[in-house]
Design a protein that fits this description.
Oligomer: single chain
Order of helices and strands: HHEEHEEHEEHE
Number of domains: 2
Radius of gyration: 35 Å
Distance between the termini: 98 Å
Strand order of the largest sheet: 3-6-5-4-7
Helix content: 25-40%
Length: 216
Amino acid sequence: MRRKSVPRRPRVALALRRQPRVRTALVVAVGLVSGVAVAATVQQADDTRAAWGQSTVVVVATRDLAAGEQVDSRNTNLVEHPDPLVPEGALTARPIDGRLAEAVYAGEVVRKERLAGAGLSALAARLPAGTRAVAIPVEPGWAPTLAIGDHVDVLVALPAEASGGGPPGFALATGVVVVDVGDASVTLAVAPDVAPRIAVAFGQGAITLALVGPER
């Protein structure tokens, strides 16, 4: 009768069982190698940190933010940046009741120059410095579909008796920015001297808004 073959134990494992000192030495050697590897990784991280220098906590937008939006914990994070990567004027804390005067994009560090004055409404925060907000009544079909941030020309059409022999139509203002869009009106940011002229034009003729396209 043939004897059943018995699987042979690996010679290395058998040798380690018979030589506990050898096994202990191997365990210690593996531990030393692992320790050296960890130490090297930590040292590399420290060297990288040292190369960048100190770091600063800054305010970073978590999504695209439009002018007029309030800067708070719902749309920004506080993130630690190496000092060489921190832009000038970066916010290091969220402002109290602070709104944006300009758009900020996701991942961008929010800077002081993008903020409007404290305590302003969303509409007032969108106004460029030195401008006035003027609402232009519009009826469906009488103006192109506009959005906040678009630029338009303000055109005035005069009746023949009001033109005084001059051109029946002219541009009262060009390239002004749209700061609000409602169901029945569009609000524009215009220069202080243009605001009263628009008010006078309402009484003398019809005002039309022409959307300004990009310059080619």
